Amino acid sequence: MIRIAQPLIGTEEEQAVLDTLRSGRLAQGPRVEEFEQAFAEYVEARHAIAVSSGTSALVVALAAHGIGEGDEVLVPTFTYAATANAVLLVGARPVLVDIRDDDFSIDVAQADAAMTEKTRAILPVHLFGHSCDLTKLRALAERRGLAIIEDACQALGARWDGSKIGSSGTACFSFYATKAITTGEGGMIATDNADVAGLARKLRDQGEGERYRTDILSANHRMTEIAAALGLAQLPKLDGWNERRRSNAAWLSEHLAGVVTPREQTAAYHVYQQYTIRVSEGRRDALRVQLEENDIEAVVYYPRSLHQQPLYQELEIGGSFPIAEQACAEVLSLPVHPGLSDADLEAISTAVNGVMTPAEARRA
Ligand SMILES: Cc1ncc(COP(=O)(O)O)c(C=O)c1O
Q1: Does 54 sit in the ligand 1 pocket, CB within 6 Å?
Q2: Going by C-beta distance under 8 Å and a sequence separation of 6 or more, which residues neighbour residue 362?
Q3: Are residue 283 and residue 189 in the same domain, yes or no?
Q4: What is the CATH number of the domain that holds 246?
Q5: Which of 103, 190, 194, 292 has its CA 20 to 30 A from that of 276?
Q6: How far apart are CA 153 and CA 49, in angstroms?
Q7: How far is the CA of 125 from the centre of ligand 1 (A)?
Q8: Domain range spanning residue 161?
Q9: pTM
C-alpha cells in the first residue's frame, strides 16, 4: 500500500527516546528547552514555546494575544476543524471567510469585508504547506489594528517572500504523526513578541508564573521529554525531507494528465504537506476507485468546510462560500511524502492517467 503519510523513524529517534526513558525525566524538562531552542533557530524566530499539540499551540497563542470572550477572529472556512475550534475554546467567535480558487488560502479582500467592530484577529491557514499571501494580509491587519496568528500546522519549513513561516509575528505548528516532522503528538508556538512568549509559557502550564502560584486560568498543554527527544532527532532531517516532497510534487505535476495540479505562487516556497489535485466534479469517485484498486491511498482533505460542519451550523456560524464548496467537491490529496520511491511515483501517475483524460484538466 502506498500510504498518504508515513512517519520516518530511524535509529537516531529510537536511541533518543530510549535515552530519555532511561534518564528518569519524562515530563517537560531540559529536552523540551533544547527542542525549543533548536526550533527557534530553524524557523528564525525570537521565541519558541513547545506544547502538546498543534491545537494547544493555537489555543495558547490566541489566549496569549488576549483573544477571548466578545472577540471575533477571521478564519478561512476551508480548513481542519482545529483552526476554528481553537477560537471557540478561548471563548471567542470565529467569523468564516471564503478562500482563493488557486491555492486554497484565505481570500484577503473577503476577510476585509467580513470585519466588524468586534474583530480582533485573523487566523490564516497555510494549507497543504503553501503560505497564504502574508504581504496583503499583514497590510490589512496593520490598517485595521488586528493581530495575526498563523495556523502553520501544515507548513513547517515553508516560506513567503523568502522568509520562513514563523520568523515574524506568531505562528503555530503541529508535530502530529502525519506532519513534516513528528513527535507523535506535539506542537510549537513561534513568536517575535516577548510578551506573547512570556504569557504563552504561563498558559501552557496551568497559568502558573512560578511553581504552585496560579495567576490566570489555563490547562496543561505541556510537551513531554519523550516527544521533545523525538523532535530533536527529526528536526535536522526536515530540510532534506521537504526538498524530497518538492521534487516528488514537481515530478507528479509533470506527469499527471487530466487533473489540476497544485499551484505555487511566485512568492511562496511550498513544502507540500499535501499534494492536492482538483478533479472535475463527478469524476473524483472513479479516480479514487482506480487508486484504491492499485493500492494507493488518496484522501479528501476536506470533504466539508467549517460552515458545513454540524457544530458550526448549530452555532449559526456560516455564510455563503462557493469557492470553498467547490474545493470540497473537487480536491483529492495524493501521496507525496519523502518515503516514496520512484516506482511509487510511477504507480501513482499510471493510475491517475489510466482514468483521467488530458481534456478533463481545468485550470482553477
Ligand atoms: C491546519 C491544521 N490546523 C491545526 C491542526 C491541529 O494540530 P494537532 O492535530 O497537532 O492538534 C492541524 C493538524 O492536524 C492542521 O492540519
Answers
A1: yes
A2: 260, 278, 280
A3: no
A4: 3.90.1150.10
A5: 190
A6: 14
A7: 10
A8: 11-236
A9: 0.98
